[in-house]
Specification:
Strand order of the largest sheet: 1-2
Order of helices and strands: HHEEHH
Number of strands: 2
Shape: globular
Radius of gyration: 15 Å
Structural class: mainly alpha
Distance between the termini: 18 Å
């Protein structure tokens, strides 16, 4: 997928990441969590978070939010990051898709 997505692209039924249309988890690492993720689910930290988004794909910095407005602000940070790093993200996505399809 491109670094920044329109609402139409996100809602497209052909988009494998559209979980409103496709049952189960989208393709990628979320479909195969590692040990650390499983341990985090079993023993999560206390908090009122309803949302999360990784805002820096290099460092893995992830922000959590309790309200939709907070999530929108955090998502803007991700979109800004993606727009700033668009060429590198597209290259890495192509490499990942090549490996994933093998």
């Amino acid at each position: 997928m491109a670094a920044s997505h329109s609402e139409a692209e996100t809602q497209d039924a052909n988009n494998a990441y559209n979980t409103y249309v496709h049952k189960g988890l989208p393709p990628g690492p979320i479909g195969g969590p590692g040990e650390a993720a499983i341990k985090a689910v079993i023993n999560p930290p206390a908090g009122s978070w309803l949302y999360f988004v990784t805002v820096n794909l290099e460092t893995g910095e992830t922000l959590f939010a309790s309200t939709n407005d907070e999530q929108k602000a955090n998502t803007k940070k991700l979109n800004d990051y993606c727009n700033k790093n668009k060429g590198d993200l597209q290259r890495r996505e192509e490499e990942w898709l090549t490996r994933w399809r093998q």
